[in-house]
Specification:
The complex is a heterodimer of chains A (about 200) and B (about 220).
Chain A (H helix, E strand, L loop, with lengths): L11 H4 L2 H17 L3 H17 L4 H26 L1 H23 L3 H12 L9 H31 L10 H21 L6
Helix pairs in contact in A: 2-5, 3-5, 4-5, 4-7, 6-7, 7-8
Chain B lengths: L2 E10 L2 E11 L3 E5 L6 H8 L7 E6 L2 E2 L4 H7 E4 L3 H4 L5 H11 L4 H14 L15 H13 L5 E5 L7 H12 L4 E5 L11 E6 L2 E6 L1 H12 L1
Parallel strand pairs in B: 3-8, 3-9, 6-7, 7-8
Antiparallel strand pairs in B: 1-2, 1-4, 4-5, 9-10
Helix pairs in contact in B: 4-5, 4-6, 5-6
Classes of the chains: A mainly alpha (about 200), B alpha/beta (about 220).
The complex binds adenosine-5'-diphosphate (ADP) and magnesium ion.
Chain lengths: ~200, ~220
């Protein structure tokens, strides 16, 4: 149901190789960021919804993915609205939301094992520069794990402020959120090492 | 099969957390107690090289944590206080396979080990669940399953029961008592260490008592609480 979890299925997205899906995701991300006109951006965003439908995923799954990011999107929207105006703010969150949905589409239709194998192969040419291909692959997959994590921390930071009488405005909660994220990321990276990742 | 601390000191900035600790651990069940800030977590993290000594050395089966961290972490599993920090992969099955994969087992072998460890904790039916949707107790079990999937010789627990209610703490200690591995438990719930072979009391940067649970706990309760 939630970010990063494989949903068994037999759509063309499920059957496509992870490498192809990652390349498409990269092209899509570039397209989203270079498009200037808001209408084109909306068209591109709609495209990912069509793909979602084709992959046989549900709208409940879509909203579950977006819910994870809702506070971050709101905070960004508020911030951009303040410094750059409505259209810029709209552009930012639409781009981000479309990207998140596209990434979720890839992870919902790809087994982690297959993703790891593909990424490991993709990184192997860099081995001679001292990159460990397996580790680099893990780092990328691990990033997916951070999405719900960031979202939980964000929600808690806002709740903590509300519990102490502040309003729902997410912007002031960003500072405690970032501080806690840094602390928790420390704990996560320690756990990664303890479980055998990286460092010798 | 021994863990040895040889004149170990740990300093963070100008804080002496441990000073000149020398001991060796060969028992099957060892407890480490002490007040908050007495260096228990630092002691635990020294064993698998998450913290390196400022001076002196720590060895596990004659391997130095300074030079053989990775091999040592395969032999010494570590269970953190907060399972949320320990669970690193999206789904239950993937998380249980993470340790074996990170230590270089093939995908099939890693998955087989993960399945076996999940079955041990009755988590097999949750294999495909998103790990962060598990209940607190299930997360704790998953954290331990992920460690046991590597079949370590030792398991170090840092405050395994601090975040649990009384019943869950008891259940956790029953699981720990049943492990075939050697176990080192850091805690300030002294009552959980009855039945252990040896209990070490830390205070002021050093080992102030190293004895049977009865005597070490009595010492701790009388002089430090
Ligand atoms: N990475 C670190 N950097 C600085 N100080 C630390 C670090 N880790 C622990 N400390 C300090 O060392 C002391 C002992 O910490 P710790 O080993 O966590 O004790 P315990 O687990 O018994 O509460 C504490 O005062 C703590 O603040
Ligand atoms: Mg501690």
């Amino acid at each position: 149901m939630i970010a990063g979890v494989y949903q068994p299925g037999n759509s063309c997205f499920h059957r496509a190789t992870p490498g192809l899906k990652l390349a498409a995701l990269a092209i899509y991300a570039v397209a989203l960021s270079v498009v200037e006109q808001i209408v084109l951006l909306m068209g591109l965003s709609a495209l990912v919804l069509v793909a979602w439908q084709i992959a046989g995923l549900t709208w409940a799954q879509l909203s579950a993915n977006l819910k994870l990011l809702i506070w971050i999107l709101l905070a960004l929207f508020g911030f951009q609205l303040f410094v750059a105006g409505f259209w810029r703010a709209f552009d930012t969150i639409l781009t981000l939301a479309a990207l998140v949905v596209a990434a979720a589409l890839v992870s919902h239709t790809t087994r982690t094992d297959d993703m790891l194998d593909t990424l490991t192969a993709a990184f192997s040419p860099f081995a001679r520069f001292g990159v460990k291909p397996e580790d680099a692959a893990f780092v990328l997959v691990f990033t997916v794990r951070l999405v719900p994590f960031v979202s939980i921390v964000g929600r808690e930071a806002i709740d903590a402020r509300r519990a102490r009488g502040a309003g729902r405005n997410p912007v002031p909660a960003l500072v405690p959120m970032v501080i806690r994220l840094m602390r928790e990321t420390d704990a996560l990276s320690e756990a990664l090492v303890a479980r055998g990742f990286g460092r010798t | 099969m021994t863990i040895t601390f040889d004149h170990v000191a740990v300093r963070f900035g100008d804080l002496d957390v441990l000073r000149n600790v020398s001991l060796s651990l060969a028992e099957g069940r060892v407890g480490v107690i002490g007040n908050n800030g007495s260096g228990k977590s630092t002691f635990a993290r020294l064993i698998n090289g998450l913290v390196l000594p400022t001076s002196g050395r720590v060895t596990v089966e004659d391997l130095d944590t300074r030079t053989h961290g990775q091999e040592i972490r395969k032999r010494v599993g570590f269970v953190f206080q907060n399972p949320d920090a320990q669970i690193v992969m999206p789904t239950v099955a993937e998380d249980a396979a993470f340790g074996p994969r990170a230590h270089g087992f093939s995908g099939d072998e890693a998955n087989a080990r993960a399945d076996a460890a999940l079955a041990l904790f009755n988590l097999a039916h949750l294999k495909h669940r998103a790990a962060f949707t598990l209940s607190g107790g299930e997360k704790q079990s998953l954290a331990l399953a992920g460690v046991l999937a590597l079949d370590p010789a030792w398991v170090v627990f840092d405050e395994p029961t601090t975040m649990l209610d009384r019943n869950r703490a008891k259940a956790a200690m029953t699981v720990i008592a049943g492990l075939s591995q050697r176990v080192i438990v850091v805690t300030h719930h002294v009552e959980l260490l009855a039945g252990f072979e040896r209990v070490i009391v830390l205070s002021n940067g050093g080992v102030v008592c190293d004895d049977t649970p009865e005597r070490a706990i009595a010492y701790y309760v009388e002089t430090l609480t």
